[in-house]
Amino acid sequence: PIQLRLVNPKAPYFKDADLIVVADCVPFAYSSFHRDFLKGKSIVIGCPKLDDAQFYEEKLTEIFRQSKIKSIKVVNMEVPCCNGLHFIVKKAVEHSGRNIPIEHIVIGIKGERTQ
């Protein structure tokens, strides 16, 4: 599974991984998603507007604590509801007590990479 609600924080594919945390809509809006972002990464997806943000923060905190994630790339849409994903990831890193580099990428509503 890749849906954040379903993944096991102790799953072997998270161990020492470069993790990509992606808003649900991104792969549909950004046609080169697989080529540009996914290769060699572990992935979780979710929607910060429709799902429980507190649950996401707790689940990500546990993943970061358990799995020794090496780096995080957050990819979300430019719409306001999507920006919450970046903040959730930042809080989870803080709560995990780990120092994990985070890269934030924003995809425009027309499918272009804006950041």
Can you give a write-up of this model?
With 115 residues, the chain is of the alpha/beta class. 33% of the residues lie in helices and 21% in strands. The protein contains 4 helices and 4 strands, in the order E-H-H-E-H-E-H-E. The protein has a 4-stranded parallel β-sheet with strand order 2-1-3-4. Helix 3 packs across helix 4. The protein starts with 17 loop residues before the first strand and ends in an 8-residue tail after the last strand.
Outline of the structure:
The chain has about 120 residues and is an alpha/beta fold. The chain has helices spanning about 25-30, 35-40, 55-65, 85-95, and strands spanning about 20-25, 40-45, 70-75, 100-105. It is built from four helices and four strands.
Structural class: alpha/beta
Helix percent band: 25-40%
Number of helices: 4
Strand numbers in spatial order across the main sheet: 2-1-3-4
Beta-strand residue fraction: 15-25%
Largest sheet: 4 strands, parallel
Radius of gyration: 13 Å
Total strands: the figure is: 4
Taken from the alpha-carbon principal axes, the silhouette is globular
SSE ordering: EHHEHEHE
Distance between the termini: 28 Å
- Regions with little confidence, pLDDT below 50 for 5+ residues: none
